[in-house]
Amino acid sequence: MGLLENLTDEALLISLRQGDVKAFDELYLRYAKKLMAFSLTFFTDQHLAEEAVQEIFVRIWERRKKLDESKSFKSYLFQAVKFYMYNHIRDRKKECCLETAAIEQIPVAQDPEATLAYQELEELALEMIGRLPKVQQEVFKLNKFKGLNSDQIALQMNLSKRTIEHHLYLASKSLRKGLLHHPSFSWLIFTGIYFL
Asked: Which of 107, 159, 104, 103 is nearest to 135 (CA)?
């Protein structure tokens, strides 16, 4: 265990702004898996979700001097995923490639309404996960929260890999449908359009 594990996000962000690679690594370890799980509720393609998370952390490193440690870093990360998704959809409509997405334009500053909207979505997501059928719920949690792949879950639950993948697909589809139609999501997308 390193000393950095005991530091708050705010303290790590202060170090990160000064170019501390270890502070960056600690923030990455702290949030990458959670951000990946969140990304997979929007991107069914594992590769695209991983690309979103990696791109967001690259941008954080590049923009480290502009980060505001007084704002919630966790909220910033989840907002960044939303903007990445919005940009991806927008660029697909224009038949442009993802590399042209203007992720660097993601605002660092948070306003109370955005934070509240994200908290509502997070609570809704957890509530929706709790309403999934028992096996689907267990499979989803093992994959998204524990980071286990389909083979590992199949072995642990004594089910076929195909069955596990089917449960993951159904759970993700259900969550996406519920979250995409939630008023907080629409408001955040509108805010994203405003900032871009």
From this structure: 159
Cα–Cα distance measured from residue 82 to residue 158, given in angstroms and rounded to the nearest whole number = 35
Confidence at residue 183, expressed as pLDDT on a 0 to 100 scale:
57
Q: Is 153:171 a contact under the CB 8 Å cutoff? A: no
- Look up residue 109 and give its DSSP letter: -
Give the residue from 92, 78, 93, 94 showing the smallest Cα distance to 39. 78
Tokens of 153: 């879950």
- Read off the pLDDT of residues 18-37 as tens digits, 9 standing for 90 and up: 989 999 999 999 998 888 88
Task: Give the tokens for residue 61.
Answer: 């490193």
Rounded to whole angstroms, the Cα distance separating 72 from 95 reads 34
| Closest-CA residue to 101 (of 113, 109, 93, 111) | 93
CB 121 within 8 A of CB 175: no
Cβ 151 vs Cβ 161: under 8 Å: yes
Tens-place pLDDT, residues 141-192: 888 888 888 899 999 999 898 888 888 888 888 877 776 665 555 444 444 4
Q: What are the Cα distances from residue 108, in Å, to 18, 22, 48, 60, 164? A: 17, 21, 23, 10, 38
pTM: 0.49
- Residue type, position 168, single letter: L
